[in-house]
Amino acid sequence: MEILSGILSFTFLAQIFRMMTPYYLGASGANFSERAGVINISIEGFMNMAAFSFAVFSIFTGNSILALVLCLIVNIILSIIFSLFTVTLKINQIVTGVGFNLLIAGVTKFLMVFLFSSSSNTPRLSVHPEMAFSITLFAIALIFISIHLLYKTKFGLRLRSAGENPWAAESLGVKVMKYKYAGVIISGLLSALGGIWLVSSQNNYSDGMIAGRGYIALAAMIIGKWKPLNIFFACLMFAAFEALEITLQISGADIPTQLIQMLPYLITILVLIGFIGKTKPPAADGIPY
Prior knowledge:
- With 289 residues, the protein is an all-alpha fold.
- The chain has a single domain, classed as ABC transporter involved in vitamin B12 uptake, BtuC (Orthogonal Bundle), CATH 1.10.3470.
- Helices cover 75% and strands 0% of the residues.
- The protein is built from 13 helices and no strands.
- It has helices at residues 2-7, 10-35, 43-61, 64-88, 93-116, 131-151, 154-164, 166-171, 176-202, 213-223, 228-251, 257-261, 263-275.
- The chain is globular and about 60 Å long.
């Protein structure tokens, strides 16, 4: 009964929208990249780097707004490097993404030990109290921004043409490489906001805090069929299961802790199995140009 009342409460609903934030930012970022024809599975790493760099800049500058700007610059640089490997040098996009995730995980752990003499977490931050809430509001607004940008502007049309048929787009004067870079950079910026949200909501960075959210965001993008509104509902679903996990832990339900903690990941796998063969990515997604 206690669990049911918790699920039906306004607090639970608010928690779902909070938990949705990093998922939707990561999934939207991946969507912009794949719409341009670049598979970016390093969303996990981008979020991790953003979370860590935001924590570091917040601690050393004492200004969370400045830290946010510097963090976004870091992720822009990271996105350009990723684009250099995948778009310009045409290195396999999946391999590059895995490499980025592993490299960033190692770099952040090394720097945390070097800067803070801790392998687990940074000192607590003094973050602007409304930052996490503001990012959540932006994530909701991003639904409409994405729809308008992708379907109502020349930029969106050209970006999508780069992911559907880059050869035809180039013949019509579209600078395909530029739009592929743009898609990846937008991906990096949105993923960065997801990482910043996690740190600003917890007031510190801890090793492993991204906890697979980047990968779940990719699953939400696939389930949402690369459409902003569908992706949003997929992210709400995953956020609801994460909120349920927290509610079950707090309630002290007679369910093994390990089973509760694996719930969001198990649901992700089961849902993806149901969507195998039922989704269609952009025609030139992942194909080197």
